[in-house]
Amino acid sequence: MRKWWPLVAVCAGAFMLLVDVTIVNVALPDMARQLHTTFTDLQWVIDLYALVLGALVLTVGSVADRFGRRRLYLLGLVLFAASSLTCGLAPNVGVLIAARGVQGLGAAAMFATTMALISSSYSGRDRGVAFGAWGAVNGAAAAAGPIIGGLLTTHFGWRWIFLVNLPVSVVAVALTLVVVVESRDPHPRRVDVPGMVSFTVAAAALTYALIRGAWASGLTLGLLAVTVVALVSFVLVERRRSDPMLDLSLLRNRSFTAMLLAGGLLSAAAWSSMAYLSLWLQSVLDLSPIQAGLVVLPSALGAFIVSAAIGRVLHTASPRLLIGTGLFVIAAGALAQAVIRTGSSWAVVLPGLALVGIGAGLSMAPLSATAMAEVPHSRAGMAGGALSTFRQLGYAFGIAVLGQVFRGGLSHTAGPALAGALSGGQAQAVIARSPGLEPLVHRAFAAGLDLTFVVAAAVGAIACVLVVVLVRPHRRGGESVPAPAPAAAADGGSEAARAFTEY
C-alpha cells in the first residue's frame, strides 16, 4: 500500500481542480442572492477559472520541466488552497472573481504536472495501474462536481464549495512533501513567455467581449481588435521560435486541426448550457442545490460510463465514425432539452441530458486518441496540451456565447429590466414581490433556455460536420485503421503531463 501514496497525493489535487470546473454551477443562485450579483458577474465566476486554466497549462508545463515538477505542483496546491480560502470568505463578487482567476493559475500548475509526477513515480505494470486509477479519478470528478456542490450548498452554504478544498489541500501538500520525489526534464524547452502572453491576452479579450456583448459599443469593438492583434502576434512569435509553445506546422494536418476545433465545440455544446439550466431549476422551479445536482447527474454519469466502456472498441472502430456519432448525439441531446414550457418540470430535460452524456462519452476518448495519432511522437505532449487547452477555452467561450443567447431570450420575452433580475438568479424574489408575474417569469426562462439549447445543438452539429469532412481515415490494405490511443505514460516531463486530454 505504501507505494501508492504518491498516487494518492497526485489524485487529490487532480480531483479538486477538475471538480472546481463544474462545482460552481449549482451554487450560482445562492451566490447571486447573497452577493447581489449581475448576470455578467455569474458568468465571470465560472469563466475566469476555466480561462486561466486553459490559457496557461501549456506554458506552465514547460516551467515545471525546468524548475521541478514536484516544486510546481506544491506551488499550485498552495495557490489553489489560498485562493479557495479567499473565494470562501469573499465579501463581494469582485473579490470572488479575482480569487477564481488565481485558483485557475494554481489549477494549471497542478494539471500540467500531475501526469509527469505519476510517470516519474512508477514504472512497468505499476505505472499502467496508476494511470488507470488517475483517469478514473478524473472521470469521477466530472460526475461528482454537481453532487458535491449541491450537498455543500444545501447543508452548509455556497462558501463551503471552496472552503472544503482547504483540508484536502493540506493533506495533499503533506503527502507530496513526504512521498513524492522531485523530477525535471534534463533537456527542458525554454519557457515561451511571448507566446504565453499573446495567447492569454487574445483569449481573455475575446472572452470579455463575448460576455459583455453590446457589439456596437467602442469598448467591445476595441476588445475584438485587441483579440485580432494578440492572435497575429502569437502566430508571428510561434513561427519564429525554435521551441514554440505550439508548433503551428501541426495545424497543416487537417485531421488534427479538426480535433482541436471539435474538442472546443464539444465542451461548448455539451456542458456550457448547464450553468443556465441550474438557474431555471433553482430560481424558477425552486429546487434545492442538491436536487439540481441530481437532475444533471445523468449527463455526467453517462459520459463517465460510456467513456470507460468505449475503450473496448477504440482500436477496432473508425474514430471518425465514433467522434462524429458522439457529436451528433450531443447535438440531439441539446435539441431534446429545448422542450421547456411554462408548466414544465425538471423531468423534461432528463432524456436530453442523458443523450448529451452518452454523446460526450462516445467522443472524448477517440477524439484524444486521434489527435495524438495525427502528430509525430515527439510532439504528442504538445498536441495533447493543445487539445486540453481548446477544451477548456471552448467551455469558457461557450459560457460567454450561450450566456448572450440566454439573456437575449429572456429580454425578448420579459423586457431588459426584468431579464436583468431573472438572469441574476432573482426569479423567486420577483415572484414574491409581484405574484402576477409568475407566468411571465416561467415563459421568459422557457424562451431563453429553449433558444440556448437550440444554439448548443447547432454548435454540436457544426462540430460533427467538421469531423466528418476533415478527418481522414487511416488506411492499411484498403481498410480503415483507427488511430491508436495515446500512451498512458511517456517519459519526458510535461510531454507526459500534457498527454492526458480526455477530461
Alpha-beta classification: mainly alpha
Count of extended strands: 2
* Intertermini distance: 27 Å
Instruction: Indicate the overall shape.
Output: globular
The CATH architecture of the largest domain can be given as: Up-down Bundle
Total number of helices:
21
Q: Could you give the order of strands across the largest sheet?
A: 1-2
Q: Can you write the helix and strand succession as a string?
A: HHHHHHHHHHHHHHHHHHHHEEH
Major beta-sheet overview: 2 strands, antiparallel
- What number of structural domains do the residues give? 2
Radius of gyration, rounded? 22 Å
Note the beta-strand portion: under 5%
Structure description:
- The C terminus is likely disordered.
- The protein has a two-stranded antiparallel ribbon.
- By secondary structure, it is mainly α.
- It has two domains: 432 residues, MFS general substrate transporter like domains (Growth Hormone, Chain: A, Up-down Bundle), CATH 1.20.1250; 48 residues.
- The longest helix is centred in the last third of the chain and has 35 residues.
- The two termini are 27 Å apart.
- Helix 12 runs antiparallel to helix 20, helix 13 packs antiparallel against helix 14 and helix 17 crosses helix 18.
- The protein contains 21 helices and two strands.
